[in-house]
Amino acid sequence: MQSDLTTLDKPPISPRERKLSRFLLFFEDIIKVPLFRCQHCGECILSSTGFVCSQRCPKRLRNGPCGGTGADGSCEVYPERKCVWYRIYLRSKFFCRLSLLYKINKIHNWNLEHTSAWLNVFKKRIDAPMIFVRNDKDIVKDMIVDDTQRKN
Amino acid sequence: MTLKEKINSDRFIVCGEIGPPQSCDGDLIRKKSQYFKGIVDAVNITDNQTAMPRLSSIASAKILLEEGVEPIMQMTCRDRNRLAIQSDLLGAAALGIRNVLCLTGDYQKFGDNPEAKGVYDLDSIQLISTVAKMNDGYLLSGQKMKKAPDFLIGAAANPFAMPLEMRLIRLYKKVQAGAHFIQTQPVFDMELFMRWMERVVEMGLHEKVAILAGVMPVKSVKTLLSMQANVPGVKINDEYIHRMEAAPDPKTEGVRIAVEIIQTLKTIKGIRGIHLMPVLWESIIPTVVKEAGLCNQN
Fold first, then answer.
1. Contacts of residue A148 in chain B, CB cutoff 8 Å?
2. What's the pLDDT tens digit per position in B20-47?
């Protein structure tokens, strides 16, 4: 579990690849900015967060909400907004993708900031997106039961 | 007996909390530590709480060690990137600090430097994993250390924020990342807390992690109301507000409420201890602990 805490910078990004990345980012932006208000972290976890960009959180949390979410699901920093993670929860529930929220996301690699996430997936720097999730509820149940057994 | 040994045994744990001052007054911490000495098992040292610069948590924890009180050093992700976090943890370990509580941190907007840049390089869950990795003898880069620290890792949980299921997912992740104990927000709404605790027991998390419920003795109804208004994620049952308003002596009533909450918490399945948060009222701790009947265990 702890060996893959950080995203590896391998293979390193070459100057030529940076150019390609910028080119691809143009097309990625056309889709991701209007739909998800993409923040260009280059390490896309949209598929595991119910297709709501988690990087819109003021603290840029990648692993769930901070303790400040209001009773109505408002953000503590901007009370007029909904907490991004509240929206992620609702959307994940709606799409039956809650099991993906149980996964610990890696520490952000700032070298990948403003690079094309698609290219990074292709180069195997980051995990490929999970498009389909089947039997979401069973996966969650199995995961929790598994852990209890491992302990005993 | 260290906190780690106490958590591994079956004892009921009592933790306190000291907030360092906004000055270099180390004697204040020495003075406050006397209220906790021999009464609680360990004392939290907050790390720039409410996003204001204060006497650093490492230095304060060292002062507590000198006074013979076991500190739990809080470590937030707001002010440090991964380099500073690792170096501070190593420094703390070298000074003999054995317990660390991993937090994300209050947003800088709420402090006296609202224009500051928040770091948030890691979040609290990733911080827990980092400390766990350092306990295993490795730095984040994968570099092996000659001498590994041995931290007892704590984390926070908020049972009162919505939605409940998201809170449990986050708690699950924290346990998964390697937390040894969990401290919750102050309990002022028993019904909500019980509902959360039921789900925790259902998931089997109470066996893997020691859950310490937060208890906050309050001085006056004003404190309660300002907490309800200003502290995000704190829920207060109206009953307590009415009682504090009606009481002729709010201070005794505050203690009575705290003791009542402790007595109820002790009966709940899965609760391993309590975490007392006397914000600016440290002198009341001996009374609360004594009246709740937790005194003679130390």
1. 204, 207
2. 999 999 999 999 999 999 999 999 999 9
Q: pLDDT tens digits for B176-225?
A: 999 999 999 999 999 999 999 999 999 999 999 999 999 999 999 998 99
Q: Is B115 helix (H, G, I), strand (E, B) or coil?
A: coil
Quick check: A147 contacting B, CB < 8 Å? yes
C-beta of residue A88 within 8 angstroms of C-beta of residue A49: yes
Question: Can you point out the beta strands (E) in chain B?
Answer: 13-18, 42-45, 71-76, 99-103, 152-157, 181-186, 210-215, 271-276
| Burial class of residue B12 in the structure, from the number of CB atoms within 10 Å of its CB (0-12 exposed, 13-18 middle, 19+ buried) | middle
User: Can you give the pLDDT at residue A147?
Assistant: 63
Dihedral angle, C-alpha B233, B237, B240, B241, nearest 10 °: 70
CB atoms B172 and A85 under 8 Å: no
Domain of residue A23: give its range: 2-151
- Quote the pLDDT of residue A22: 93
CATH node for B3-290 = 3.20.20.220
Chain A contact for B173, CB < 8 A? yes
Q: Does B107 touch chain A (CB under 8 A)?
A: yes
CA distance B148 to B4: 17
- Identify all chain A residues contacting B173, using CB atoms and an 8 Å cutoff: 63-64, 102, 104
pLDDT of residue B296: 52
Cβ of A64 within 8 Å of Cβ of B172? The answer is: no
Q: Which residues of B touch A54 (CB under 8 A)?
A: none
In contact, A48 and A62? CB cutoff 8 Å: no
Q: Say what the alpha-carbon torsion angle B137, B140, B143, B146 is, to the nearest 10 degrees.
A: -30
What's the mean pLDDT in B268-287? 92
**CA-CA-CA-CA dihedral for A30, A33, A36, A40, to nearest 10:** 110
Question: Alpha-carbon distance B135 to B147, whole Å?
Answer: 10
pLDDT of residue A150: 54
For chain B, what are the domain ranges?
Answer: 3-290
- What's the predicted TM-score (pTM) here? 0.94
Contact call for B172 and A102, based on CB within 8 A: yes
The residues pairing with B100 across neighbouring beta strands, listed in sequence order, are B73, B153
Q: What pLDDT, on a 0 to 100 scale, did the predictor assign at position B163? A: 87
**Looking at residue A2, what is its pLDDT?**
45
Tally of structural domains, chain A:
1
Whether A70 has a pLDDT exceeding 70, the answer reads yes
Tokens linked to B58: 């490492």
Measure the CA–CA gap between B60 and B23, rounded to whole angstroms.
12
